[in-house]
Amino acid sequence: MISAATTHSLRLVILFVWVGTSSSWLMGQGISTTQFFLYGKQHFTKTGYLKHAAKYAANEALDKADLSGKVFVVTGANSGIGHEMAKFLFRQKGRVYMVCRDSSRAENARADVLSGWSAGQGEESAAAEKRLVTVIADCSLRSDILKVAETIGRMEPGGVDALVCNAGALLEKRAVTQEGHETTFACHLLYGAYGLAKVMEPSLRACAAHGGAPRCIFVTSGGMYNTKWPKWEIGSSSSAADGGNTPKC
Ligand SMILES: NC(=O)c1ccc[n+]([C@@H]2O[C@H](COP(=O)([O-])OP(=O)(O)OC[C@H]3O[C@@H](n4cnc5c(N)ncnc54)[C@H](OP(=O)(O)O)[C@@H]3O)[C@@H](O)[C@H]2O)c1
After folding, report:
1. Which strands make up the sheet holding 162-165, listed edge to edge?
2. Which residues make beta-bridge pairs with 133?
3. Distance from the CA of 131 to the center of ligand 1, in angstroms?
4. What is the pLDDT confidence band of residue 46, given thresholds at 50, 70 and 90?
5. Residue 93: CATH number of its domain
6. 8-state DSSP, 58
7. Residue 123 CA, ligand 1 centroid: distance in Å
8. pLDDT band at residue 232, thresholds of 50, 70 and 90?
9. Under the phi-then-psi rule, with left for phi > 0, alpha for psi from -120 to 50, and beta for the rest, what region is 80?
10. 166 CA to middle of ligand 1, Å?
11. Is the distance from the beta carbon of residue 219 to the nearest atom of ligand 1 less than 6 Å?
């Protein structure tokens, strides 16, 4: 028997294919949307998660990981994936910098992470609190990511073991930052990922110089495969008048 969900899915597929036949551009978009939809239904969304989670073995290595002395920077750490990451890294005794754009959301999130700390693990509460630091910065702004790199570089002369560029927002309406760049592009790519990694490079190199194995992790989305990158001037909000110059990092 075909379920209502399957019928709905088939209708959507037919719609995409039908749309795809109306012109060659639409056909290309229709095909990639259909592929993305079918693949995504299997591997992402709640269905994908439940399917894969059923196969996860209990991972003792993660629970036993000792991150004492290691330094982590997580952007967008006040909710979602970033917040869960901050909780995990802190619980395993890492020193964690939570980069958030709003100070009250940052403090609430920090309190939530701290609430998971429990006495009796050979660490004083005050020492544990010192391992969890909030840094207020909007990752879509060049001025802010420069401050992040400067602050953390000063506080961690021994370097940073891992930078996790996770902050992101997919806005329904086009918005431009006060520095003049389309917000999603600025936050996900230009400053929140490429720019931040670039300005944090000295901290990552300092970690390597102290015998560490630094890394930079980008949290991104398969959704990008589903749509064409627009013209550079449009995607980046750089002006055609200046030759569509790459914004500064
Ligand atoms: N969850 C998914 O299914 C999924 C799928 C594909 C990709 N992703 C990517 O995974 C990452 C995390 O997603 P999530 O689901 O955990 O989302 P989420 O719960 O909405 O968390 C996003 C975090 O990023 C922060 N943020 C947004 N814009 C920022 C900015 N300009 N500067 C600093 N922080 C900013 C948000 O802070 P505020 O609270 O201040 O807004 C929030 O803490 C994102 O990059 C997202 O695109 C997620």
Report:
1. 132-136, 95-100, 71-75, 162-165, 215-218
2. 97
3. 23
4. confident
5. 3.40.50.720
6. P
7. 31
8. confident
9. left
10. 6
11. yes
Q: Is any ligand 1 atom within 6 A of the Cβ of residue 166? A: yes
pLDDT in tens, 49-87: 888 888 887 777 888 899 999 999 999 999 999 999 999
User: Do 30 and 130 reside in the same domain of the chain?
Assistant: no
Ligand 1 pocket member 91 (CB < 6 A): no
Ligand 1 atom, smallest distance to 170 CA: 47
- Give mean pLDDT, residues 6-33: 60
Assess whether 22 and 70 both reside in one domain: no
173 and 211 share one domain: yes
CA of 120 to the centre of ligand 1 (A): 34
Poorest-confidence range of 98-102, 145-149, 234-238?
Answer: 234-238
Question: Could you tell me how far CA 13 lies from the centroid of its own chain?
Answer: 30
- Cβ(82) to ligand 1 under 6 A? yes
Q: Whose CA is nearest to atom 48 of ligand 1?
A: 221
For residues 206 and 119, membership in a common domain is answered with: yes
Q: How many domains does the chain have?
A: 2
Please tell me the predicted confidence (pLDDT) of residue 228: 77
- Residues facing 132 on adjacent strands: 96
Radius of gyration of the chain (CA): 22
